[in-house]
Structures are given as C-alpha cells and as structure tokens.
Amino acid sequence: MRIGVLTSGGDCPGLNAVIRSVVHRAVADHGDEVIGFRDGWKGLLECDYLKLDLDAVGGILARGGTILGSSRVQPSHLRDGVERAKGHVEELGLDAIIPIGGEGTLKAARLMSDAGLPIVGVPKTIDNDIAVTDVTFGFDTAVGVATEALDRLKTTAESHQRVLVVEVMGRHTGWIALHSGMAAGAHAIVVPERPFDIEELARRVGERFEAGKRFAIVVVAEGAKPAPGSMAFDEGAKDIYGHERFAGIARQLSIELEERLGKEARPVILGHVQRGGTPTAYDRVLATRFGWHAVEAVHREEFGHMTALRGTDIVMVPLAEAVETLKTVPEDRYAEAECVL
Ligand code: F6P
C-alpha cells in the first residue's frame, strides 16, 4: 500500500512518535510505502512531500514538534481545496491518508472522508478536549510542564507575598488548568466551563491571606471568561487567520485581584512552552500505539475512522462522532479539585 501521513494544527509533543510508529508498522511489517506531507494539509494541496523510510524516522521518538512541519491550512478553506487534494491523492497513487491533528484537523478529515478520500485519523492536542478519546497524547507532557512551573512559582510568590495568576493553555476547556492546578496544589483554578465571578474569586484568595498565608497561586485557562457583568473584560483581537489570540486573562485578572485584595499580583503566561520539548513516556507510548493502530485500520480499510483510547484499549471511532462535541471539564471533576484548593 502507499500511505500519506501529515501533521496539522498546533503542534504537540508525541507527533514524531506517531510518525515513527506509522513508518515502522507500515514499512517494516507490511512492506508499505509511506510519504509525509510537509506542513499539514498544505503539503497535500501543493504536492509537497518526502519519502519516509526507517532512516527518516530514526532518533525522532523523544523529539518535540513534528519533523513534517504543521500549519492551520485546511482544504475546505480554499475554493477548490477538496478537489485539488483528491486530484493529488489519485496522482500519487495513495491508498490512504493518515492526518494527525486536533479538532480543526479532524473536522477537515471528516469532510475529506465524506468527499470519498480514504482517511484514518489520529487525534492530538495538549488540551485533551476531544470527546471520543479518554486521553490525547501531549496532554500529559503539557500538564507536567505547567506543574513544574507552578511548583517553581510558589517559591517566588511566597518570597514576595504575592498573588501569581498563571495562565495555561486551553482555549475551550480547562483540563490543563484542572490537572496542573491539582498536581501543584494551586489555591484557585479558573476554567472556561465555569465563567467566574471576580468578587467570589477575590474573596476566596483573600481568605487565604486572612488565615495568615503569605501567597496565593491562581491557575487560569486562557479561554476562561468572567460571568457577564462581573468585571470589565477585553476579549482580545483575532490573529490574521481569524483565530483567537487571547486577551491575556491572567493580566486582566491580576489587575482586578490586586485592586480588591491590596496585595501585589503578577500575571505569568506559560504559553507555548507547554507545547514544546520532549514528550513524557506516557505520551510516547500512547502516540506509538495510535500510529500502530492507524496502520492496522488502513489495512482493514476502516476509513472515515480515527484511533481513540478507551480505558486501556485503542479502538476505532467514526470521524463523524469525533467532531460532534468537545470534552469539557464536568462539574464533579471540578468539585474534586475545589475541595483541596
Ligand atoms: O489547541 C492547542 C492549543 O495549544 C490551545 O490550547 C491554544 O489556544 C492554541 O493551541 C494556540 O495556538 P497557536 O499556536 O495558533 O497560538
């Protein structure tokens, strides 16, 4: 078989582990040929690709980012995009395409699959918000980076008797905020699923100081918003592609908390450091398993599906289901965290 692989959307630790696993399973075990498109769907649209053999994927397991490059270009965003992609798949004699990506990429994958292309998807996102899989690779790494940062920030916050408002990634969901906040013993966790009341948040943080504590750490997901009317809020400008760039909720929150508490407050934005660098062992294993199962699905011609983790098993889920809803932080998970804040 001839298989094309691509990585699309925001990068994520573990992408290279999937690529490596796909090549090992397909080339070494099945005798397939694998090509990798550069910079996501853009590579397919422009017929820009490289041959992926065992040498090409040597030594990449622990490397962050993606050796193929990524972009947010999607065929459906261009007038003749889907047709062009179909034409190139035929021209290149591809039997299957394995796109590795998050919400946007999986939506594009579904469209391409509906247009008749042989697609097997692999989900990825540090945000862990894809509903049909228990976990996405990249999340464990991101939580680890954020937790380490929070541990470090505690000591400087204490020295200066400050409130540090730490912004982590998560545009629609608060999974990174919840897990890193719990792991590091933060004093408040603010997530997009629960619009916050600034007075209530200030009261909670203030109680800590009244109890004689010298500092406070507030973890906030970048997509968190105040409850309507709770405080003035600047939504921020979109980037040149119309994607949210985020207004810096940590900056706005730190100003509001400083005014209400009379304590120095500083924003800390962890940003893309959460997405960079080497994946954890957990993420490498999950990514490797996804790659292996994606190739098996290609050989079973189980197109229009993607890999997913359910419990400890890897299963195949229809792409149509995968893009229906996001996995948000449920109330009971938030309550578990709240009790130890
Ligand atoms: O989807 C993953 C993610 O890391 C989000 O948490 C974040 O909002 C976004 O990507 C940032 O994307 P960009 O790299 O385009 O700024």
TrEMBL record:
EC number of this enzyme: 2.7.1.11
Residues the record marks as site: Important for substrate specificity: 104
Cofactor(s) required, per the database record: Mg(2+)
Residues annotated as binding ATP: 10, 72-73, 102-105
Keyword Ubl conjugation: no
Residues that hold substrate according to the record: 125-127, 162, 169-171, 222, 266, 272-275
Record-linked Pfam families: PFK
Keyword Chloroplast: no
Domain Phosphofructokinase residues, every copy: 2-298
InterPro entries attached to this UniProt entry: ATP_PFK, ATP_PFK_prok-type, Phosphofructokinase_CS, Phosphofructokinase_dom, Phosphofructokinase_III, PKF_sf
Active-site residues (renumbered): 127 (proton acceptor)
Keywords per UniProt: ATP-binding, Cytoplasm, Glycolysis, Kinase, Magnesium, Metal-binding, Nucleotide-binding, Transferase
Binding locations of Mg(2+): 103
Pathway: Carbohydrate degradation; glycolysis; D-glyceraldehyde 3-phosphate and glycerone phosphate from D-glucose: step 3/4
Compartment annotation: Cytoplasm
Catalytic activity: beta-D-fructose 6-phosphate + ATP = beta-D-fructose 1,6-bisphosphate + ADP + H(+)
General function of this protein: Catalyzes the phosphorylation of D-fructose 6-phosphate to fructose 1,6-bisphosphate by ATP, the first committing step of glycolysis.
Subunit structure: Homodimer or homotetramer.
Family listed: Belongs to the phosphofructokinase type A (PFKA) family. Mixed-substrate PFK group III subfamily.
Name the UniProt record assigns to this protein: ATP-dependent 6-phosphofructokinase
Organism, as annotated: Streptomyces doebereineriae
Phylogenetic classification of the source organism: Bacteria, Bacillati, Actinomycetota, Actinomycetes, Kitasatosporales
